[in-house]
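Show me any protein, fold above all:
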Amino acid sequence: MTVTTSKVFAGCIAFAVAAISASCGGTNNSSTTSSASNVTVSLNQSSMNVAVGATAQFTATVQNTTNTAVSWSVDGTAGGNATAGTVSASGLYTAPAAAGSHKVTATSMADTNASASAAVTVGALGAISPATVFLPPSGTQQFSSSIQGFSNTAITWAVNQVVGGNASVGLISTAGLYTAPSQPGTYTVTATSAADSSVTASASVTVGTITLSPASATLAGSQSQQFTPTASAGVKTFTWSVDGTAGGSATIGTISPSGLYTAPGQPGSHTVTAADGSITGSATVSVDFTITPSSATIPPWTTKQFTATGLSSTSVTWAVDGTTGGSAATGTISADGLYTAPAAIGAHMISATSVADTALTASASVTVVNFSQASVLTYHNDDARDGAYLEEVNLTPANVNSTQFGKLLAYPVDGQVYAQPLYMPGLNIAGGTYDVVFVVTQNNSVYAFNADATSSATVQTFWHAGPLGPSVYKGDITGVNPNVGILSTPVIDASTNTMYLVAEEGGKADPTPFFLHALDVTTGAEKFGGPVNLTGSVAGTGLDSSGGNISLESDCYQRMGLALNPVTNWVYIPFGSCNHGWILAYDKTSLAQEAIFNDTPDGAGGGYWSSGGAPAVDDSTGYVYLMSGVDELVQGDPGTGDPVTNGYNDSIFQLDPINLTVSSSFTPSDNFTLAEWDADLGSGSNILIPSSASLPVTLGGGKDGNVFVVNRNDMGGYNAGGTNNVVQQLQLCTDGYNNIFSTPVYWIGTSTIYYHCNDNVISAYSWNASTAQISTTPTSKGSAVFQTHGATASLSANGAVNGIIWDIDNSAYSYKLGVPQGPSVLHAYDATNVATELYNSSQAGTRDTAGSALKFTVPTIAGGKVFVPTSTELDVYGLLP
């Protein structure tokens, strides 16, 4: 905004004029004549309107004396002052900075009884609002201003000094409503006081246009088009939308901040718009044909039908990763779109190119996932971590009871079994084909047991690898007593028959005691040149920084399970219970480190332990999801850790699978309180759960009992002291201590979520995939209270029927002593109503007694068997002979 306050005095200078301007008043109207000397003083004007800070020239005439000198004053003060205005010896009046009324007086130096005065009104025009504005062609804007000091408050509006404006510069009404011209340009709107034409204020108007290139485009589904904006002067930044939705969406196409549009997976017409305020430019997009489905995940060797639909889909050429018809390595695709996956896991791109217009190519993504029929290859059964085994045909709610079901045998092992047992059926091993269960121990041993055994007489150990190295004594700081070896759940790549595990091994000179092993599941032999020592550093100034870098500490715990990402073919390894939270990624074949992430490089805390849970992986995109805590070992003081301002304590992450950068995150608003009380959000683990395509979510909870449902792509960030920006927040298990030390179970057959909180009972909650909401109260509850840490349950079912929840009660484990005080107890509940307990291992006296209790253990169900890890043995339960 520009306010003009200079005054050009162009009139009212004659002493005695027969016809005088009304704004100047009459000559001698305020003069006085001295009765003693007959001296007379008169001014050339009796009143004057003056803008604040402007000047006006007064002229005095003295008669009947040869001494014509006068003295000047304002409001009785010689020469005036800053408040009333000043007047020079020559009668030049300078108005003050504020509006008001004042009196300028000239007094005869020959006779002070003779004087003349003039009234001065000082006025101002307020700033025009708005001061600057960008408008599209023919757009409108209401301007306003106000008069101060003058009794006449009328304003005359002009554009580029043309009162009322015109078609070339824009029109403005008497009320200040401006209508922009059709041509772009920069114009000046001026308001002028009707009381004094020199009192003005101005505002700047820029009429801008945005033109997109190309103005229209025809695309195939998932194809991209770069739109380039060309703008007139004044337009500097652009916001992009599709069909009025900022950034677009999966159903209408998305557009990046740089204008790169990616078409949706279905045909249609859409409008891409670039805007700077109210200035917009648009282009049209026709999505000609698409591939259905737009993405898929399938197991090795299986097939998936892809279909091209739309205007140009009558004849297309199919390709995989750019090769027409595909190949044995990438998978093949027929002339009618039937894709056959290769043996190896990995991500591939299916494309269909229009024969009529080869510039039109639609694409779809397919990921060959780590899957083997009826197998359990990773923690909590799959990469979503839902804990559901849906291929169980032998165990049903009708036959799981103490009469028909019980303990069949036990496999003794050489150390505590914290990791979940893994299972592969139909494996060619030891000269035959067997179902095999794999177990790892804190003594750094790996076992391959015959899962088909039904009694102690038929047990068989196919191989035992280890100890891979001496376990490491760590005392009982975290309740792992006293030695640590293989603490986390391994992962098996079924396409290469390779098991990946991390062993903590003492007595070596390597920087850390952590080693990644790749073992052949048929022999236990090392593969790919393993093992490799796990090390790494990042730039940082936080706790234990040295030379501007933070290095992986040897006193960490590698407790969270490993994750094998089918998109990158990397193994992801989290660390915690040390000064920072770390994630390392290694190529599954070369065992080379590919990426590293530290969530508190300039602070401390943020460790990953999750009671033994594992990172969840979106098999379609490869994005990695997990939850951090506040490590109790930080600075040797439980509860001490840096809040979110120095990193990501107590947060939920979406991590880019390639570089492990944070793509999105959520941190509770009470983060400082959680850090102060060591109330880890990451004491539990999160799962990926089905929801609407426009609202993909993950959910998980921690020590304060709060469960958060967050949008995977926009998790909500951190709102200090405010409301958490999440899809849903609720506190579970409010009738107990409500701490969550577990990964929930999800059964898609009934849309049910199961949680077992600390010092509480198993509880079932309904899940609404459309709204992404959990029921606020349980749909059913069990009756058996599990004390220490509750439990992470597993589910078996035959698809959507015969669901059973399996739960291990480790209340006999002494957290304070770090040693068992009694056996684990296996429980089975009807999954449709967990108030119905079908079985527990204490019902048949000592027949079914399990091994010694151990915290955080998870049962594995497969092939009609239930495998229960304990402190001393692997217990196998099933239908009794």
User: Anything to note?
Assistant: Residues 1-29, 632-641 have pLDDT under 50 and may be disordered. Helices lie at 671-676.
